[in-house]
Amino acid sequence: RDTIIPGTHDSATCSIPKAAPFSAVGRTQNRTITDQLNRGARYLDLRVGGKGTNEENIFIYHGFLSGAKFVPILNCIVEFISDNPGEFLFLEIVLEYGRKITDEQRAFLFDSIKSALGENII
């Protein structure tokens, strides 16, 4: 009757540099996406935002702290799915509160997700 889905909050924040101001608060995870998936997480909370106007400049954010570019994080997810075709993941990909994104960045984000996950998207 009830289903429990193990997951992580601000899942990709381990990519925020430890030396960044306030990183002790903003880095809510100390394991990579790959590590989290290998340890059983099946729900990922990915918060993104744009930097500048280059369409590919979509980064992981937690508040004002930025981490890795989004596409390498997405590639880790794709690799996990390829290696574990029987697994089912829930991805919540949202624009971080207060972050902006250009129309070109939004299109790049959607195209990247669609291209990477293709028929795996439900």
Automatic annotation (TrEMBL):
An annotated GO BP: lipid metabolic process
Domain of life: Eukaryota
Residue ranges constituting the Phosphatidylinositol-specific phospholipase C X domain according to the UniProt record: 6-120
InterPro entries: PI-PLC_domain, PLC-like_Pdiesterase_TIM-brl, PLipase_C_PInositol-sp_X_dom
GO MF term set: phosphoric diester hydrolase activity
One matching Pfam family: PI-PLC-X
PANTHER family: PTHR13593, SI:DKEY-266F7.9 (PTHR13593:SF113)
Protein name per Swiss-Prot or TrEMBL: Phosphatidylinositol-specific phospholipase C X domain-containing protein
Lineage: Eukaryota, Sar, Stramenopiles, Ochrophyta, Bacillariophyta
